[in-house]
Design goal:
This protein is mainly β and about 110 residues long. The chain contains no helices and ten strands. The strands form three sheets. It has a four-stranded antiparallel β-sheet, with no helix packed on it. A three-stranded antiparallel β-sheet has the order 1-10-9, with no helix packed on it. It binds FE2/S2 (inorganic) cluster.
Length: about 110
């Protein structure tokens, strides 16, 4: 049974935006897409930039530094032949307008 850490209210992250939170010592980005909230590791596996400051296009976040893409729903690196750069995903729970993120990867 995963544990969850409360991070903010649902209204704190408008649709199409994201925010980064420190959860159990890890930086995790929480994204508000059209169909709900999703969370992935925030440091870009390429060179460490904060992914939440990138550009969201549908369900992909494009890093602002070298533009690598990562699936917001599945954490998959969109660049060819480098699956070792996938990022972890975390379950997001919504209860009474409050967002909580699993402290362990899915
Ligand atoms: S730091 Fe993200 S693509 Fe290079």
């Amino acid at each position: 049974m995963p544990e969850y850490e409360s991070v903010c209210r649902t209204t704190d992250i408008p649709e199409g935006e994201a925010k980064c939170f420190k959860i159990m010592g890890k930086l995790i980005g929480v994204y508000h897409l059209a169909d709900g909230f999703y969370a992935i590791d925030d440091p870009c596996p390429h060179a460490g930039a904060s992914l939440v400051h990138g550009c969201i296009e549908k369900d992909v976040i494009h890093c602002r530094i070298h533009h690598w893409g990562f699936g917001i729903k599945d954490g998959r690196c969109q660049e060819q032949n480098i699956p070792q750069h996938n990022v972890n995903t975390y379950e997001v729970r919504v209860r009474n307008e409050e967002l909580s993120v699993s402290t362990t990867p899915s």
